Amino acid sequence: MKPEVSAKIELAASTSSKSVPDFVRDAATRKAENTLLDRMGIEFNQADWEKFIAALDTPPRITRACVI
Residue 52 in contact with residue 43, Cβ under 8 Å? Predict the structure, then answer.
């Protein structure tokens, strides 16, 4: 590994108050989870698909809680 890459990882780990192994493990775990989620598909039966599309087509309701 190039020294500048190692230094960057060490600085990021230190900034995160983590050891380098913990920082690298956590970063690799996040990347693995994101990679798997990106490739995950959702399957619907016809009735659920129609409900899903109807929900997407329905305009949101603005409530008092939504207004700042």
Answer: no
